[in-house]
Specification:
about 475 residues, 20 strands, alpha/beta, six-stranded antiparallel β-sheet
C-alpha cells in the first residue's frame, strides 16, 4: 500500500468531482500509487478547517458537485485500480447552532459537562460516546461512506484526543474516570465497536488511526484487547526522520539515533509512515524546503528520503505537491504550483516515485513482512558516514538490500558485510541516477558479493536498492 493524500479543493482549484475523475486518476496512475486518501469530503462550512470541522456528516460537500458526481470520481479511481480512503472525523464537531450543537436546545450529541464536551484546542464540541443514539449515529455514518460510496477504508482523525480525558487539558479541567484514571472509557468502547462493526459489515476494508501517543494495541484486534484498527500512523518515525534531515549533513552524525530509534518500535503496531499535510502547514514549510542546501541538494535529499520511506517497514503516505518539488508550504487558499511539471528536477522526483512504486509492488520483501520483525535485518548503522544499510525480507524468502546515504558526499568502495547470498546483486533503484537528476554515482548495474561481502559506490544524498541477480 502506498497512499497519495489529496485535498480536493486545492489540488487543482475549480475542478468538479467529474473533472477530477480524469485528471486526478491520470496523475495518480502515472505516479504508481495504490491508493488515494481524501481529506474530509463531508460537508463543512469553513474551508480553512480543511474539512475537519464537519456539519453535514452524511453529505459529500456540494463545492464540487452532487453525491452521484462523487460516486463517479470513486468509480473512476476504482476502474483504474486505485483504492479510495476517506478521512473521517468522529472526535469532535463545530458549534454552529444550525448543525448538531444543542440540536434540540439541549446537549443532544455532545457531553453536557464542558470538562468532556468541549475541545480546548479546536473550539469544538465532543460527541457523547456514552449515549447509544450518538454511537449509532456515528457507526451508521462510517458504514454509510463505505456502503453508499464504496470507499475502501477510513482514516480516523484525532484518535489520541478521544482516548484521553486530559488531552490538552490542565489540572482542574478534566474529571477522572470511575477507576480514577485519565482513559476515556466510553470513547475506547466506541472505537472498539466501530472497528468491529466496520470489519464485520465490510470485510476487506482498512481502518487507519491517526494516533500520536504510545497507547498500546491500537492495531491489535479487539478480541486481543486492542482497538482493532488495521494501521496506525507512525508519527514518531515522521518526527524523528524530519528532525534528522533538517540538520546540515556535517552535523547529522550527532543525531544518528533519530534515524535508528524508530526501528526499536517498528513492529509494535501495524504502521503507516506519513509525510502528510500536517507537516507542510503553519510555518513548517514545504517538504523540500525542510532540507538544507541548494535546490539540487534538496531535491537529492528528497529523493533519498522517499526511497528510505518506501523501504522502511510500514506502508507509505505522501501529501500532494512533493512530486512537484514545491518550495512553499501548502495552503487551502491557493492551489498547487503546477509549474513543477516543467522543472527537470521535479520531473526526476516524479520518475523516481513511479519507479519506487513499481519496484515496491513487484517485490514482496518490501511489504509482505511490514509488521513482523523477521522482515528487517541490519547490515550497517554508520553515524560517521550518515549511512544506514538493511535487508528487507519477504515471506517468500526474497530479499532486498537497502542502503541510504544522508551525507553530502559520495561513498566509494563502501564495504558491506553479512549479505546473505554470494554472487551478483543487481541495482534496481539508485536515486542518484542521472535519470532522476542525480550525479550518476553507481555500480554499473550490480555489485559482486563474495563470502557475504561486497563493495558499493553510492552518491551523495542517495539511496540504492539491490537484489540478488
Amino acid at each position: 500500500m502506498s497512499v497519495y493524500e489529496v485535498h480536493l479543493g486545492s489540488w487543482r482549484p475549480g475542478l468538479s468531482y467529474v473533472e477530477l475523475a480524469s485528471q486526478l486518476v491520470d496523475h495518480v496512475q502515472a505516479l504508481g500509487f495504490t491508493h488515494v486518501e481524501f481529506m474530509p469530503v463531508m460537508e463543512h462550512p469553513f474551508g480553512g478547517s480543511w474539512g475537519y470541522q464537519v456539519t453535514g456528516f452524511y453529505a459529500p460537500t456540494a463545492r464540487f458537485g452532487t453525491p452521484d458526481d462523487f460516486r463517479y470520481l470513486v468509480d473512476k479511481l476504482h476502474q483504474a485500480g486505485i483504492g479510495v480512503l476517506l478521512d473521517w472525523v468522529p472526535a469532535h464537531f463545530p458549534k454552529d447552532e444550525w448543525a448538531l450543537a444543542r440540536f434540540d436546545g439541549t446537549c443532544l450529541y455532545e457531553y453536557p459537562d464542558p470538562h468532556k464536551g468541549e475541545h480546548p484546542d479546536w473550539g469544538t464540541l465532543v460527541f457523547d460516546y456514552g449515549r447509544h443514539e450518538v454511537r449509532n449515529f456515528l457507526l451508521a455514518n462510517a458504514l454509510y461512506w463505505l456502503t453508499e460510496f464504496h470507499a475502501d477504508g477510513l482514516r480516523v482523525d484525532a484518535v489520541a484526543s478521544m482516548l484521553y480525558l486530559d488531552y490538552s487539558r490542565g489540572p482542574g479541567q478534566w474529571t477522572p474516570n470511575i477507576d480514577g484514571g485519565n482513559e476515556h472509557l466510553e470513547a475506547i468502547s466506541f472505537l472498539r465497536e466501530l472497528t468491529a462493526t466496520v470489519y464485520r459489515n465490510h470485510p476487506g476494508v482498512i481502518m487507519i488511526a491517526e494516533e500520536s501517543t504510545a497507547w498500546p494495541g491500537v492495531s491489535r484486534p479487539v478480541d486481543w484487547g486492542g482497538l482493532g484498527f488495521g494501521l496506525k500512523w507512525n508519527l514518531g518515525w515522521m518526527h524523528d526522520t524530519l528532525e534528522y534531515l533538517k540538520e546540515q549533513p556535517i552535523h547529522r552524525r550527532f543525531h544518528h539515533d533519530e534515524l535508528t530509534l524508530p526501528a526499536l518500535y517498528a513492529f509494535s503496531e501495524q504502521f503507516l509512515l506519513p509525510l502528510s499535510h500536517d507537516e507542510v502547514v503553519h510555518g513548517k514549510g514545504a517538504l523540500l524546503a525542510k532540507l538544507p542546501g541548494d535546490r539540487w541538494q534538496r531535491l537529492a535529499g528528497l529523493r533519498a528520503l522517499l526511497a528510505y520511506q518506501w523501504s522502511f517497514p510500514g506502508k507509505q503516505l505522501l501529501f500532494m505537491g512533493a512530486e512537484l518539488g514545491v518550495e512553499h508550504e501548502w495552503s487551502e487558499a491557493w492551489g498547487l504550483d503546477w509549474s513543477g511539471l516543467h522543472d527537470p528536477g521535479a520531473g526526476g522526483v516524479r520518475r523516481l516515485l513511479a519507479d519506487l512504486n513499481r519496484e515496491y509492488r513487484a517485490r514482496p520483501a518490501m511489504w509482505s513482512q511490514d509488521c513482523a520483525d523477521a522482515g528487517l535485518s541490519w547490515l550497517a548503522s554508520d553515524s560517521s558516514a550518515n549511512l544506514l544499510a538493511y535487508l528487507r525480507w519477504g515471506t517468500d524468502g526474497s530479499v532486498v538490500a537497502c542502503v541510504v546515504n544522508f551525507s553530502g558526499v559520495a561513498h566509494h568502495g563502501y564495504h558491506l558485510a553479512a549479505l546473505p547470498r554470494d554472487g551478483a546483486w543487481r541495482e534496481v533503484v539508485n536515486t542518484d541516477s542521472q535519470e532522476y537528476g542525480g550525479s550518476n554515482v553507481g555500480n554499473l548495474g550490480a555489485i559482486d558479493v563474495v563470502d557475504g561481502a561486497g563493495t558499493l559506490h553510492i552518491g551523495p544524498y542517495a539511496a540504492v536498492w539491490l537484489v540478488p541477480a
